[in-house]
Amino acid sequence: MSAHSDRDAVSGLGRVLRRLPRALLLVSLGAYCYAFAWLLHLRHSRFATLDFDLGIFDQNVWLLAHGRSFLTTRGLEVFGHHANFGHLLLVPFYWLGAGPNFLDNVMVASVAAAAVVVFRMAARLSGSEWIALALALAFAWQPTTTWLLQESYHPEVMAILPLFLAFDAGQQRRWRAYALWLLLAVSFKEDVALAALMLGVLVAVRGHRKAGIVTALAALAYFVLVIEVLIPHYAPQGAFYQQFYGHLGATPGSAVGTVLTAPQRVFNQLRSAGAAGYARDMTIGYGFSPWLSPLPLLIGLPQFAANLLSQHSFTWSPRLHYAALVLAAATLGMVEGVCCRRRVRHRWLLAVLVVACTASTTLTRGIGPGSVDFRAGYWPLVNGPRYATLAKAVALPGPSDAVAATYNLVPHLTHREFIYRFPNPWRASDWGVRGENPQDPAGVDWLVLDKLVLGTEDRALLDQLIAGGQWSVSLDRRDVLVLRRKR
Q: Residue 6 pLDDT more than 60?
């Protein structure tokens, strides 16, 4: 073989090796999407999804697609619940028949696309696509990432992708793309505006004062507009999640006042909520590398504080959607912390550390395939003995009938104007802000109930309804009861 052909062979091998990380990323993320999309399909089809929140968001988009606006899954107007303007982008798919599985698939795809953005950022900053591959897969397999997917669709998870794209565009001074991606991120939920505000602070601190100040002011103005004008217009009682901070003040202004005038109360709350442990849990999967570049962590600081200042402990968990923006900030810090080391050797060592920590934590703390909890019941991997009965129950009401159902059946009945979580509308339960907007129980045509999840009060109410003689039994099998109102 000639020297020339030897050089061609070597250069050809070099090209293959240079492209290999991208190929591995696409194959890995393809398998990732398939696995989680299928798991979420099983979760929904086997009646393991809930009204809070998949049922709410599915009815949200369905109502927008049909020119209606009152969420009977929550007792609030669509935009009195959250400012989810990004859902308007999903409306055309609902005209074609999309539903809960579509929402879950879009969320999984957006997380995979966010991993591609991590790859692109890391490759540009580190000069190595192998390091970029390691960091992209580390994001995809973070314990919190897998738990966010398991929880099913949430709009703040959708915001991660455009937030990454905005951060990447800002690094490259592509300000028009930066603004457009930030606008898309904020459209999914009003909380994202606070992350955008802090991104503006970060941009200003790093020398782009005009872009940073404009970003911060615009994000703050939008957040105030939503909280003080939009939501009160549709929900005069105020944002329902203000109740999370009732121990700090009855209104957002008084809560902010408490933060400024009584910092000891804030410190006590953060300590009781386990702020240090929460920060540890959100960064341990990255080998604590985000702390090597702490400025991007500012992006998640408002949500970090909001989660831990809540009086409800479920917001303190790294397993729920409340952690989405904190995860996004930790990921951006990880990318910079690893890729901006001056010595190439240090980048490689940190990348290996991140991969090792991700592998160990996703196995011990995650919920994806291979984790210790994968078969613990969070995913319904086997059809239950009542599957056929439940499937028959949710198929009985007509598409325009008003239905009240137990929380585990609501997501299968949300493509209608009136779907209530029993005992609503007879007794207000997680309805509105303070039980306002009562509905007429006489308008309910069907009761679709899984009696195994009914509490004592709900069972007593059900007995009263049956005793009233206004309902006929359409199905009563395996503790699944379907009643139809007599007309």
A: no
